[in-house]
Design brief:
- This protein is of the alpha/beta class and 333 residues long.
- It has two domains: 219 residues, Spore Coat Polysaccharide Biosynthesis Protein SpsA, Chain A (Alpha-Beta Complex), CATH 3.90.550; 91 residues, Hexapeptide repeat proteins (UDP N-Acetylglucosamine Acyltransferase, domain 1).
- 21% of the residues lie in helices and 35% in strands.
- The strands form five sheets. Strands 14, 15, 16, 17, 18, 19, 20, 21, 22, 23, 24, 25 and 26 form a 13-stranded parallel β-sheet that branches.
- Strand 9 and strand 10 form a beta hairpin.
- The termini are far apart.
Length: 333
């Protein structure tokens, strides 16, 4: 089994950080989002991955090759951002067997083992999460047997609460790419994009059975507010703690937090849901729901719902902020 991971997006909702860091490499609980996905693939036994790259592609490729040398990677450039079907179409020359398609916007808790036990009658497996705010998502409308009938984007009526999370196992890869080519031969959406879900609809229309599978956890990291929620969830579930090589003096720590090696915290209050990456210094400050990069310096700040880049220097500031690496923000002391 191979995998295809589209990574070409610009991550506009997470600017300014994505001006210099690919969105899948932004960190939650001190770990790039893409690492959670690739760790799962390695554990599953996948050894070959097609990466659809674009924005900051050299940075992306260098990180993958350095961190996952055991993977055979194919890097295909999506020159035109023409949607998910356009992205997956670029992988066709490399796919000659079962394939996982994973969109790297979230930390996922799913049973990948279902790919090994899927009944022979099914052409694909679509993981779907039941949600209450179904209007925000593409939802999968199913038949009584759990197979896909159609996917409806952001429905105004509750036709289904099964949100399409962007994780798919495709057994009939030939029919998938036939559907992709069929989709690309039609008119694009008003935004100029072609959607992979239309290729799934083509598969269904040809008589293929695409069955849904449950999702244990789906933690979005594609926009700031959900990134903070995901960071907090991970800190609560095994990714938090104060490293023995960190220094905490006279500060109140409210769990969950992640305080990495070499961090120095003096005075103030840290937490809940705060990640301080290695060698950051925080003095006389209050932080909650924050992600702070390595080697940053914060003094007399009171921040919430903030992303602070590595080596940033922030002093005498109150509120919420998103600043990139090496930024300098000094308020009135």
């Amino acid at each position: 089994m191979k995998a295809v991971i589209p990574l070409a997006g610009k991550g506009t909702r997470l600017r300014p950080h994505t001006h210099h860091t690919p969105k899948p490499l932004l960190k939650v609980a001190g770990t790039p989002v893409l690492a959670f996905i690739l760790d799962d693939l390695v554990a599953l036994g996948v050894t070959e991955v097609v990466f659809i790259v674009g924005h900051l592609r050299d940075t992306m490729q260098a990180w993958i090759e350095a961190e996952y040398p055991q993977l055979t990677g194919h890097y295909v450039v999506q020159e035109v951002q023409d949607g998910t079907a356009g992205a997956i179409a670029l992988a066709e020359p490399f796919v000659d067997e079962d394939v996982l398609i994973i969109f790297a916007d979230a930390v996922l808790e799913v049973d990948y083992g279902l790919t090994k036990t899927l009944g022979a009658e099914y052409a694909a497996l679509l993981w779907a999460k039941e949600v209450e705010d179904y209007q925000r998502f593409g939802v999968i409308v199913t038949n009584e047997d759990g197979t896909m009938k159609q996917i409806v984007e952001k429905p105004s009526e509750p036709v289904s609460k099964l949100a399409n999370i962007g994780l798919y196992y495709i057994r009939d890869h030939e029919l998938l790419f036939e559907g992709v080519r069929h989709t690309l031969a039609t008119d694009p959406s008003p935004s100029g994009e072609y959607y992979l879900t239309d290729a799934f609809q083509y598969m269904v229309d040809q008589g293929a059975k695409l069955v849904t599978a449950p999702v244990d956890g789906w933690w979005d990291a594609g926009k700031p507010e959900t990134l903070f929620e995901t960071n907090g969830h991970l800190l609560e579930t095994g990714w938090g703690g104060v490293d023995p090589d960190a220094t905490v003096e006279g500060a109140e720590i409210i769990e969950p937090v992640r305080i990495e090696p070499g961090v120095v915290v003096r005075g103030g209050r840290i937490g809940p849901n705060v990640t301080l990456e290695a060698e950051t210094v925080v003095q006389d400050s209050e932080l909650k729901d924050c992600v702070v990069g390595p080697q940053a310096y914060l003094e007399r700040v009171k921040l919430h719902d903030s992303m602070v880049g590595g080596s940033a220097d922030v002093r005498d500031v109150t509120g919420s902020m998103r600043i990139t690496d090496h930024s300098v923000v000094h308020g009135e002391g």
